[in-house]
Amino acid sequence: MKEFRATASPRELLRRFATIALGCAILTFGMHNIHQVVGITEGGVLGGILLLNHWFGIDASIASPLLDAVCYILGFFVLGAGFLGWSAVASVLLALFYALWEHLPHLFPDLSAYPLLAAIAGGIFIGVGAGLVVRSNASAGGDDALALSIHKLTGLKLARCYLFSDLSVLLLSLSYIPVTKIAFSLVTVFISSPLIDVIVGFGRDEAPVDEGEDGLAPA
């Protein structure tokens, strides 16, 4: 594994922050302008929230922090404290960019009549956005923390870890969501998962995600 410095220079910290910010902007843009408009459902933690709400009546306000907390606690023990620090930064940036897009008119063509095209476009935005965040050893949500932890513990390719968590929830969601709607979500998952892997591993010769003494991976 590569050696990491215990401290990062201001320039490295700024570059990491900028990468996370760009990733959050791209991710939230796709979610707000494509997924929310077309109504494409999700796998991972968000899908789990919907599943718990449907079958057990657990409010999203309770299920969301509960599932995220479980994933982040796992990430803390597996990936280190530095991972949680940068994930907190990503969480704040996600909220800020969501607020920004919500106060602006939709900036992407309405693809409601073309759900397959929407699923493809959404997968690209999510894959690139989440990939940039994960490349900086941060998490854009509990999904990323879970996938990164599975990747670190098992050595499986990151794309397979994302597919495992997303597909597990989507398959369970078939118990109350029509197959046709799940099918478009699968398109997004099969595009975004390998794309995250490509973004994270681009230009690297070794394992793309690891933490040093400061919990940072090279950007």
Automatic annotation (TrEMBL):
Membrane topology of this protein: Multi-pass membrane protein
Alphabetic keyword roster: Cell membrane, Membrane, Transmembrane, Transmembrane helix
Cell compartment(s), UniProt: Cell membrane
Superkingdom in the source lineage: Bacteria
Pfam families linked to this entry: YitT_membrane
TM annotation in the entry: 12-31, 37-58, 70-101, 113-134
Gene Ontology cellular component terms for the protein in this record: plasma membrane
InterPro entries: UPF0750_membrane, YitT
Entry keyword Cytoplasm: no
PANTHER family: UPF0750 MEMBRANE PROTEIN YITE (PTHR33545:SF9), UPF0750 MEMBRANE PROTEIN YITT-RELATED (PTHR33545)
Protein name: YitT family protein
Species this chain originates from: [Collinsella] massiliensis
